[in-house]
Amino acid sequence: xxxxxxxxxxxxxxxxxxxxxxxxxxxxxxxxxxxxxxxxxxxxxxxxxxxxxxxxxxxxxxxxxxxxxxxxxxxxxxxxxxxxxxxxxxxxxxxxxxxxxxxxxxxxxxxxxxxxxxxxxxxxxxxxxxxxxxxxxxxxxxxxxxxxxxxxxxxxxxxxxxxxxxxxxxxxxxxxxxxxxxxxxxxxxxxxxxxxxxxxxxxxxxxxxxxxxxxxxxxxxxxxxxxxxxxxxxxxxxxxxxxxxxxxxxxxxxxxxxxxxxxxxxxxxxxxxxxxxxxxxxxxxxxxxxxxxxxxxxxxxxxxxxxxxxxxxxxxxxxxxxxxxxxxxxxxxxxxxxxxxxxxxxxxxxxxxxxxxxxxxxxxxxxxxxxxxxxxxxxxxxxxxxxxxxxxxxxxxxxxxxxxxxxxxxxxxxxxxxxxxxxxxxxxxxxxxxxxxxxxxxxxxxxxxxxxxxxxxxxxxxxxxxxxxxxxxxxxxxxxxxxxxxxxxxxxxxxxxxxxxxxxxxxxxxxxxx
Length: 514
Ligand code: GAP
What we know:
CATH class of the largest domain: Alpha Beta
Strand order of the largest sheet: 3-14-15-21-18-17-16
Bound molecules: glycyl-adenosine-5'-phosphate
Keywords: Aminoacyl-tRNA synthetase, ATP-binding, Cytoplasm, Ligase, Nucleotide-binding, Protein biosynthesis
CATH architecture of the largest domain: 2-Layer Sandwich
InterPro entries: aa-tRNA-synt_IIb, aa-tRNA-synth_II, aa-tRNA-synth_II/BPL/LPL, Anticodon-bd, Anticodon-bd_dom_sf, Gly-tRNA_synthase/POLG2, GlyRS-like_core, tRNA-synt_gly
Shape: globular
Protein name: glycine--tRNA ligase
Enzyme class: ligase
EC number: 6.1.1.14
Distance between the termini: 29 Å
CATH topology of the largest domain: BirA Bifunctional Protein, domain 2
Strand content: 25-35%
Radius of gyration: 29 Å
């Protein structure tokens, strides 16, 4: 993972947000390569989900969200994670992710400053693996009490009181990083709240707005407008790609858990009797999609979420999980959510959200199947999957390692790089620039004339460019007249080369990068 994070920074895929100011935790900026990769992913998702289907339409909802929407959906009351704080470092942890630990607990009833100027009765404990680590436990405890004594007190000035030892089994009360006691778990709402308009009262519910925690809610809110304006009939879907925000307690694993991220969501509305069948159909569709963007299905784990772990309103949920270098983690959830969401909004808004079936003359609230994918997580999975280090041996037996991102061409940030073999050769430069201009309206290409051609290939390998086009002496008709007006195309993965006529280049490439 370290190598991937470093390549992403070095080659302009992903940077930490506000890095020059020390970084904004949980936020990331995509650089020139990253933005192309992400756009290609989103555009392919849109093409497969909306453009190539008759039964799905798109929308683009606002990020600022009305308080009542998220009250009705249950987010204001219940979109929270349990959190606890380390008493020593104040680090905040997800209480449900603290591993159960066993060992020797050192308990203290209080502490005093050695010069007698301060005394505190407050129970504290530290967990260490074995009794032999008593000094470590005492140091941690003394640091904690020193903090309570005042900011300039060193732990060496502290005398611990009432020490007792006791074995502790399977406890989630201690910070695994330092053995310090954690606070009791508290619920922490994950949404970012804001005040809308020039009001002086921050608590005025009419002025309260939220940054949306998922794109889904604006789809439910606009379902009726879309139904009335688009002549869609059940079953049909509404798709949306956009930013969502969650004040995650522990953003981590690079972009995997961020505070600002993009989702690609579909709400597929259907008749109640079709929900269970459709959730399986979507599972297949989504697995094929991952395959087509370079995350093979053999590397995706399908978790059929058990009854006691599903949301109470869901009748079936699949989690698609990917083998990231830091563990197997969720990429996408596909949930059959019954009529829960539309029923909540019908109640919350007082507006009828039923569907009128002209054939059966019945009115009912449609059920919904929701494939909800994370765009940033998919980008990360694509990069992890593409990353390769290949050992090469040259003609003289010298070994070398080539770093290459083996993106599928349709997702690669740059589709083709164009080189004149020699930058001093005016005719080669002219033809290479002309090829660049011909290809630019159709795809992202990159012109490079700096350095030896082998070095230029390697730079493109590192950003995953599938094809490098070189204009050489043969292109000019020198050496072999039959090769006039052809170029060399070097393939990233096999490193093999072939010649293609300049006039055929555009079609040759389009057939390979769509
Ligand atoms: N509308 C349903 C919904 O939002 P979710 O499982 O909370 O469901 C869907 O989110 C997807 O959004 C996840 O599978 C994940 O890919 C992405 N996602 C959620 N939280 C994220 C975060 N903090 N950082 C990056 N991606 C996240």
